[in-house]
Amino acid sequence: VPELPEVEIHARNLRGWLVGKRIAEAQVLDPMLDAENGGAGWAAPVSGRRVQAVRRDAKYLLIDLDEADTLVAHLRMTGRFRSVGYRAAPPEKWVRMVLALEDGTEVQFEDRRRFGRVWLAPTAAVRSLPELAELGPDALEAPTSAGRLTELAAMTSRSIKVLLMDQRLIGGIGNICAAEILYRARIAPDRPARSLTAEEVERIAQTIPPYLEWAIAVQSRRELIYLGEKGAENVFTVYRREGEPCPECATPIARSVIAGRGTYYCPGCQPSRGEG
DNA sequence: CTTATCCCCTGCCGGC
DNA sequence: TGCCGGCAGGGGATAA
Description:
Layout: H1 4-18, E1 23-28, H2 43-46, E2 51-57, E3 60-65, E4 69-74, E5 79-84, E6 95-101, E7 106-111, E8 117-122, H3 130-133, H4 146-154, H5 160-165, H6 175-185, H7 198-220, E9 254-258, E10 261-265
Antiparallel strand pairs: 1-6, 2-3, 3-4, 4-8, 5-7, 6-7, 9-10
Helix pairs in contact: 1-7, 4-7, 6-7
The chain binds a DNA duplex through helix 6.
């Protein structure tokens, strides 16, 4: 689920669970959690620390600890943080990391596909880490203006959808957000970014923050569940709705592949060429 | 430098 | 029921 809205929800939840609390013990159950640094030797050093703040930058979660260190986390495709009451039983199958708090609760990181990452870095150096150094402005905290979006579009031959998902240009928009934003702005995802008119770029820029706020509000109502999981409900308008009628014009929602990613859109509302 | 493709890993779902 | 291909809300490495 990890796109800006879901990561923002995680940040808010984690604040309630962690800020001001002391981590009695950190356990890394899967070395792949920090594969790039050789398997997470940070469990012991983190134990005993107190959590001071939780921040979000694009799709990254930053858990600030005392002694000037920060746990940096990325959920990738299937990562998820959960708060559970104290259990003597061993953690469930997909739990990769546990923060046992001194109040007896646990914050667990679970991740079916094991792409997610959590590692420790000095707080002052977080923004200059290779993973974060080139991140573009956060799509929610520092919205992209129509003017800047026009400049970005002029610099590339790629499609508007690929541009929106480029984390070096705009931080936080992923495959679902891109599809939903372009549907609401009535722009075909395969349109070359450079071909958009000023009015079309304006429409996209003005759609992004409200869409993100809407997605945060809608998905905050219940525990975060990935599409495809038991109990999941598709709250999106076009994403994974191939063949269903567009709520605006009843044209069946179509699916294509752009840059290797499934792309959903309404051929009626989002004509591929010309104005529409 | 830009852009496209492949790959990491595991699970689920539909078709045969 | 079992096997198999396709698909999956990420991004990094590599190739062209």
